[in-house]
Amino acid sequence: MDPSLMEPCSQTTVSSSLLNRMLVIMAKAPRPGIVKTRLVHSLPSPAVTSLYRCLLEDTLALATSLTSVEVAVMCPESDQEELAHLLGNTVQVVAQKGEGLAAGLTSVFRHFTAVRPQLVIAFNSDSPHLAPSILDSAFEILATHDVVVGPTHDGGYYLVGAKAAHPVLFESDPMGTRSALDRLLTRTKVLELSTGFTEPFYDIDVAKDLILLARELQLAPAKAPSTAGWFAEWHQAVAQLRQCTGDL
Fold first, then answer.
1. Are 206 and 38 in contact (CB under 8 A)?
2. Hey, which of 30, 189, 194, 224 would disulfide with 53, CB 3.0 to 4.6 Å?
């Protein structure tokens, strides 16, 4: 990554106490072959679908544990009814406009800043082990920047926030690739948007991520209790995965 892209171009100071805080979880209905597709060659299909359901449940619990933060879910239109039922109508579930994650991210900021400016953060559905303090800090960073980004170690990002919609920020972006973060930062620079950063973290995309999470939850299962329960249920499959990856 070009280090110059990590430097904010300008700084817009807005008191966080004056703006509503909205955390939007990017989600899909837990269906086989649709969620966590990069894990389907490493685990049985039912295990992958069950894992995503647990990750989503724990992510929602993390989100709703925050103080003075509204929580919503953004999903494909075809998943809206199923997710609303799955989540027990505990949070607002909004259908995105268009297909794919890039369209979903664009929809988040168009929808939630349409009426008034808000501190809006889009958060992935597979980082329930993230410390709540990092999400709190993301809102504080966003209060003094146009955009906040939470980088992942693999070149993507686990959260992105803004106070207004920027239609071209995610347009035609090949999300889920190693260049996703670089592309986003290039666009924030072109648009002259000041950008702040939370701590780098990892999300759950491939087998090595899952093994890392298994170690973390073995020490602190309360971070993500549903996911910790999944590891207990599928311990044999995870043990085989460790053998295949040479992580014994």
1. yes
2. 30
Q: Which two tokens stand for residue 23?
A: 């955390």
In the chain, where are the structural domains located?
Answer: 17-202
Cβ atoms 203, 153 nearer than 8 A: no
Question: Residue 3: its pLDDT value, please?
Answer: 43
What is the rounded distance in angstroms from the CA atom of residue 135 to the CA atom of residue 61? Answer: 13
Instruction: Give per-residue pLDDT as tens, 157-192.
Output: 999 999 999 989 987 645 444 478 999 999 999 999
How far is 247 from 218, CA to CA, in rounded Å?
A: 15
Beta bridge partners of 70: 22
Which H or E run includes 71?
A: strand 70-75
Task: Write phi, then psi, for 84 (nearest 5 degrees).
Answer: -60, -40
Class of domain 17-202: alpha beta
Q: Please give the full DSSP string across 95-125, using - where no structure is assigned.
A: EPSSSSHHHHHHHHHHHHTSSS--EEEEE-S
* Contact yes or no for 74/22 (Cβ under 8 A): no
Residues 28, 235: Cα–Cα separation, whole Å: 25
